[in-house]
C-alpha cells in the first residue's frame, strides 16, 4: 500500500503566493482531480510533487519518506506535462524510439499505439498530426515506466469523447493496480472521479 | 549517461540534415571569402588560418539553439531531468553530442579544404590541433550560454552578443599556429566555468 501525503504545502513563485497551506492524502488506488482557474498553481503543484520545484514550505511524504530526500522517488512517478514531449520533425516511430532509449524499456510500437487506436500513425511525421493525436501519443509515455504515481497535467485537453473515455479507463485500470493518479483539469470530472480539490 | 548520449545521437541521426547543413555552411563560408580577398596561393594560406575560425565560430553559434532549447520547447527536458537528476551528466552528454554532431564533420572535411587552400602538411597538422582544442572550449561556452538563456524566446542575437566576445581569445590564439597549448588551457578553463554555469542555468529552469 502506497501513500502520498501533502502537509501544509505553501509555495511562492517569485513574490507571488501560489499554493497556501495545502493538505491532502492519497492512498493506492485513488485519483485526485485538482481544479482551479488559469494561473491558480495547478501545474506548479504537479511540479512540486514531481520534485522539480524544491523551494517550498511544508512536507511531501511518499510512504512516510520526504520526497526531497528520497533518491529513488523519481522512479516511482510518471509526469505527463502539457507539452507533448514530441519532436515535430520526426515520425511517431522515431519519437517512441527516443523515449525507449531514455526509459530503457523496449515496447512493441504497434501494440502501444493500439491503446488509442492509432497504429496506422506509426510512420507519420508528428508535425502532420492533429493536436488531439499528439496528446494521445504523448500519453503513451505512461506505458514506459512501472511507476506508482501518475501526474497528469490537463490530460483531457484536445481529446475527443472516444479518446477521453479510453484515458479514463486507463486511469481506472491503473487505480485497480494500486496506482495513485493526480490530474489537473479545467473540465468538471466529478461524475468520473469524486476526489477533487480546488486551488 | 550512455543512454542519454545514445538518445541525443539518435536524435541527430534522425534529423541528419542538420549536420549536413552545418558542414555545408562551413564550406560555403570558406569558399566565399577568397572571392573577396583574392586567390593568390600565399594569400590563401594566410587567409585559411583565419577563415576556418570564422566558419567554426558561426557553425557553433548557429546551432546553439539545439543544445537545450529544442528539448525545452517540446518538454523533453523535463523527462531527461527526471530520469537523469545529475545535471552534470546531462551537460557532459550535451557537450559530447554537440561536438560530435556539429564539429566532427568539419574536421572530416578539413583536409580537403586545406588542400584547396594550398596549406602545407606541417601547417595543416598545427591548424588541426588548434582547431581541435579550440572547438572544445567553444562548445563549452555555447552550452553554458544556452543553459543560462533557457526559456528566453527569439534571443539568438542576445546569445550571439554574449558568445562572440567569449570566442575572441580562441580566435586570437587560434590564428597563431604554435598556440595549441594555450587553446587547450582556455578550453579547460571554459570547461570549469561552463559546468558550473550550465548547472546553475538548468537548476534555474527546473525551479
Explain briefly what this protein structure is:
The complex is a heterodimer of chains A (199) and B (207). By secondary structure, chain A is an alpha/beta fold.
> How would you sum up the major sheet of chain A?
5 strands, parallel
Could you name the CATH topology of chain A? Rossmann fold
How far apart are the first and last residues' alpha carbons of chain B, in Å? Answer: 23 Å
- Helix and strand pattern of chain B: HHHHHHHHH
Unreliable spans of chain B are none
Task: Kindly report the oligomeric state of this protein.
Answer: heterodimer
Tally of distinct domains of chain A: 1
The percentage helix of chain B is over 70%
At the fourth CATH level, what is the homologous superfamily of chain A?
P-loop containing nucleotide triphosphate hydrolases
Tally of individual domains of chain B: 1
Largest sheet of chain B: none
Mean pLDDT of chain B equals: 89
Biggest interchain interface, per-side counts: A-B, 27 and 22 residues
Helix content of chain A: 25-40%
**Count of β-strands of chain A:** 9
Count up the helices of chain B: 9
Name the shape of chain B in a single word: elongated
Amino acid at each position: 500500500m502506497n501513500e502520498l501525503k501533502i502537509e501544509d504545502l505553501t509555495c511562492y513563485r517569485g513574490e507571488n503566493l501560489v499554493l497556501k497551506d495545502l493538505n491532502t492524502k492519497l492512498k493506492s488506488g485513488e485519483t485526485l482531480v485538482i481544479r482551479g482557474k488559469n494561473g491558480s498553481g495547478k501545474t506548479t503543484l504537479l511540479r512540486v510533487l514531481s520534485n522539480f520545484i524544491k523551494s517550498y514550505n511544508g512536507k511531501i511524504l511518499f510512504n512516510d519518506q520526504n520526497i526531497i530526500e528520497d533518491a529513488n522517488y523519481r522512479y516511482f512517478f510518471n509526469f505527463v506535462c502539457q507539452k507533448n514531449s514530441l519532436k515535430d520533425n520526426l515520425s511517431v516511430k522515431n519519437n517512441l524510439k527516443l523515449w525507449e532509449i531514455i526509459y530503457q524499456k523496449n515496447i512493441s510500437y504497434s501494440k502501444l499505439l493500439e491503446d488509442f487506436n492509432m497504429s496506422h500513425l506509426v510512420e507519420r511525421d508528428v508535425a502532420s498530426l492533429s493536436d488531439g493525436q499528439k496528446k494521445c501519443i504523448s500519453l503513451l509515455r505512461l506505458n514506459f515506466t512501472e511507476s506508482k504515481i501518475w501526474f497528469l497535467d490537463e490530460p483531457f485537453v484536445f481529446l475527443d469523447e472516444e479518446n477521453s473515455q479510453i484515458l479514463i479507463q486507463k486511469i481506472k485500470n491503473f487505480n485497480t493496480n494500486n496506482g495513485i493518479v493526480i490530474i489537473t483539469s479545467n473540465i468538471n470530472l466529478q461524475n468520473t472521479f469524486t476526489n477533487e480539490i480546488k486551488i | 549517461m550512455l543512454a542519454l548520449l545514445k538518445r541525443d545521437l539518435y536524435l541527430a541521426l534522425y534529423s541528419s540534415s542538420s549536420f549536413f547543413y552545418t558542414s555545408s555552411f562551413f564550406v560555403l563560408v570558406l569558399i566565399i571569402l577568397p572571392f573577396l580577398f583574392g586567390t593568390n596561393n600565399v594569400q590563401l594560406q594566410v587567409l585559411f588560418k583565419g577563415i576556418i575560425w570564422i566558419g567554426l565560430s558561426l557553425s557553433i553559434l548557429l546551432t546553439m539553439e539545439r543544445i537545450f532549447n529544442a528539448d525545452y520547447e517540446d518538454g523533453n527536458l523535463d523527462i531527461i531531468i527526471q530520469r537523469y537528476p545529475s545535471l552534470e551528466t546531462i551537460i557532459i552528454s550535451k557537450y559530447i553530442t554537440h561536438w560530435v554532431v556539429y564539429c566532427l564533420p568539419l574536421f572530416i572535411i578539413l583536409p580537403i579544404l586545406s588542400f584547396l587552400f594550398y596549406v602545407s602538411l606541417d601547417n595543416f597538422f598545427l591548424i588541426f590541433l588548434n582547431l581541435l582544442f579550440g572547438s572544445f572550449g567553444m562548445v563549452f561556452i555555447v552550452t553554458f550560454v544556452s543553459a543560462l538563456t533557457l526559456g528566453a524566446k527569439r534571443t539568438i542575437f542576445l546569445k550571439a552578443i554574449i558568445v562572440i566576445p567569449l570566442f575572441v581569445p580562441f580566435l586570437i590564439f587560434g590564428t597563431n599556429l604554435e598556440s595549441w597549448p594555450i587553446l587547450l588551457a582556455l578550453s579547460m578553463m571554459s570547461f570549469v566555468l561552463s559546468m558550473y554555469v550550465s548547472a546553475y542555468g538548468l537548476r534555474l529552469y527546473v525551479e
